[in-house]
Design brief:
heterodimer, A: alpha+beta, mini-chromosome maintenance (MCM) complex, domain 2, B: about 180 residues, mainly alpha, about 0% strand
Chain lengths: ~120, ~180
């Protein structure tokens, strides 16, 4: 019996992973820098594709690629480039992060309702 | 600390740095920030069972500081430092409970603790609680990668013991 506890814990953890991996995406994307929301984008109103440059306080750059319904970090000048490797923003519970630049790109929590879309 | 011991610790640090540098070239197994194999910890886990607590801490600190310089990623220093120290603090008492032939268990717990410490530092630095949603991924990857590196350390340790005893010439007197 005791042997099954680690296996059960591992299975629960994997389930938790899958649950957040497949969480449904939202519509409004928030750009958060150092804990503050600095911009909001409405992905359903995008036409075509465009890039947005996000400047970090210490002097760093993340270039976002915004298309209809999706967003990703196209390139960045941080050392690890984890934010670029993460690809498209895919679920509401897994934000794109760039730790060196203190940048988070996430779907807005659903409770906020309709907002004006402003960029930069 | 005598010279022989000093040289041994220096060798361990060099070996661990070598593994660390090799790992930079390898692609990350998961597109999650902070999730990596942690090959350098093969040496740390081995040192945990063959050196004193102070010596293990020295090897770990030297590897983290020099590794940050080598990879040119000094910004990640805070994350690896908090992860490494939490991992060591957790596994030091564990080595009294878990025997060396179950070394990989200790390493799995260590990998998990390392990622928890890393994530805590990341949340403190960016002040974004949303990063907590990466916790399950980091826990699973910590357990899996920790078990793998622990298994490597365990096999290495068994082979080292074999070669150490194989070539001894002070044969015990046989009672034939």
């Amino acid at each position: 019996m005791k042997k099954f506890i680690p296996a059960a814990v591992l299975l629960l953890l994997i389930g938790w992973c899958l649950w957040s991996w497949f969480a449904p995406p939202g519509r409004i994307v928030e750009i958060v820098q150092r804990g503050r929301v600095t911009a909001r984008l409405d992905l359903s109103r995008e036409t075509g594709s465009r890039t947005i440059d996000i400047l970090a306080p210490g002097g760093g750059l993340n270039r976002l690629l915004v298309e209809k319904g999706r967003v990703k970090v196209l390139c960045a000048d941080c050392p690890g480039r984890d934010c670029v490797k993460m690809g498209w923003l895919r679920s509401a519970s897994l934000p794109l992060v760039c730790l060196p630049h203190g940048l988070t790109v996430r779907y807005a929590p659903h409770s906020e309702g309709e907002l004006d879309s402003l960029s930069q | 600390m005598n010279t022989k011991n000093f040289a041994r610790l220096a060798l361990l640090t060099a070996l661990s740095l070598l593994l660390f540098t090799v790992e930079i070239v390898l692609p990350a197994p998961l597109p999650v920030p902070g999730a990596k194999l942690g090959l350098a910890n093969v040496v740390t886990v081995w040192a945990l069972y063959h050196c004193t607590a102070k010596e293990t801490l020295l090897v770990l600190l030297a590897r983290i500081l020099l590794g940050a310089l080598l990879s040119g990623n000094a910004g990640a220093l805070a994350f690896s430092l908090s992860g490494g120290l939490l991992c060591l603090a957790g596994t030091l008492p564990l080595r009294r409970v878990i025997p060396e032939r179950r070394l990989w268990l200790c390493s799995a717990v260590g990998g998990m603790l390392h990622n928890v410490g890393q994530l805590a530092a990341a949340i403190a630095v960016t002040q974004t609680a949303g990063l907590l949603s990466y916790l399950p991924f980091l826990l699973v990857s910590g357990i899996v990668c920790g078990s793998l590196t622990g298994q490597i350390a365990q096999q290495t340790s068994a082979r080292l013991r074999y070669y150490k005893t194989r070539d001894r010439d002070d044969l015990p007197s046989q009672n034939l």
